[in-house]
Specification:
Helices cover 78% and strands 3% of the residues. The protein has 119 residues and is mainly alpha-helical.
């Protein structure tokens, strides 16, 4: 079920939304030159971590192979950080909606989660 096109599209949109949330948070909570640096640096680091540390058995090119548990922890850290940043931005309904979509995505991707845990 984790490779269903709708679930993959949802995952991609959640990743993009997470990066936008991180950039928005950086813009709001920093001032001056640090504001511009944070808007560029924070999402770049998050996207790099997402792309670089992958499980070798998953599709795509793997730069740094990690265990399934490590990959799952990176994903949890990414989505929980984005969710927490939405909460700090006082975006109550958006926070709830984003959290619900992340939970639905991982509930539908139970087969991938079990595969990552076993790997």
């Amino acid at each position: 079920m984790s490779n269903h096109p709708f679930n993959l599209a949802l995952r991609f949109l959640l990743e993009l939304a997470g990066l936008c949330i991180i950039a928005t948070w950086a813009w709001v909570f920093h001032q001056g030159i640090y504001q511009w640096l944070a808007v560029i640096l924070y999402p770049t680091v998050a996207a790099a971590a997402w792309a670089i540390f992958r499980v070798a058995s998953e599709s795509g090119r793997t730069l740094v192979p990690v265990s399934g548990i490590t990959r799952l922890l990176i994903e949890i850290l990414f989505f929980s950080t984005a969710t927490r940043m939405l909460y700090q931005l006082d975006a109550g309904r958006l926070y709830s909606f984003f959290l619900l979509l992340v939970m639905v995505h991982y509930a539908v991707s139970y087969d991938r989660i079990l595969r990552l845990i076993r790997n």
